[in-house]
Amino acid sequence: MSFLILRDIHHTYFTKATATTALYDVSLHVEEGEFVSFLGPSGCGKTTLLSIIAGLISPTEGTVMLEGKSIKEATNTIGYMLQQDYLFPWKTIEENILLGLKLTNQLNDSTKNYAYSLLKKMNLQDVESQFPNQLSGGMRQRVALVRTLANNPKLLMLDEPFSALDYQTKLKLEDLVFTTLKSFGKTALLVTHDIGEAIAMSDRIFLLSPKPGTVHKIFTIPNHLKSLSPFTVRNEEAYAHLFQIIWKELEILEQQNECRTPSSTI
Fold first, then answer.
1. Which class for 235: exposed (0-12), middle (13-18), buried (19 or more C-beta within 10 A)?
2. pTM of the predicted structure, to 2 decimals
């Protein structure tokens, strides 16, 4: 059985006047240790899908299974990393990275030492007593990753975590996050608008079509690219070829999207 299974996911947002279907008939599976990206035009339901997988919202129809259990039963197994770091500015870096462990009653000498070792791995040693406003944006995102990994989640959700960073910092963090997750054997789901980012970091890419969002195509990254760092992947001929293919598919989806109405009145 696959590590993560989605079966027949439908989701509709209701108001008094309208019903907007965000996702329609989404079925997919993700294997343990796999890095998967969700890519697609605005309005294709990427973030809604991630929220359903995380158990933050319940789908209108369908099921999500993680290691053979419903997502509601899979407590303390999912970590979330967002576009903003959401560090508490009045807490030190040490207090921020240990917060999740405290809230889940997992804080002890062993888990604390593990969190400190993650800081060192991220080249963030000697910042424990500092506050978030004393760090750069890239450093704060690394702290956010440490906070997420400190709870040792089995599944990591990445919702456009690099989009607010400058390009050079973004490329460096892509490499750092990729190598860190691979070294720990973590399963990761990335939501992104960036075709290059999806190709450089992923094992597979799920391209979603919009209104309602459904799986349009699945792209499997060539094996020889999977073993390379994201920065190195961008210099490969196969990267450029796959980029053009996905770009053309996205253009088709964007054109179709312009012809569709956003919602239906009830």
1. exposed
2. 0.89
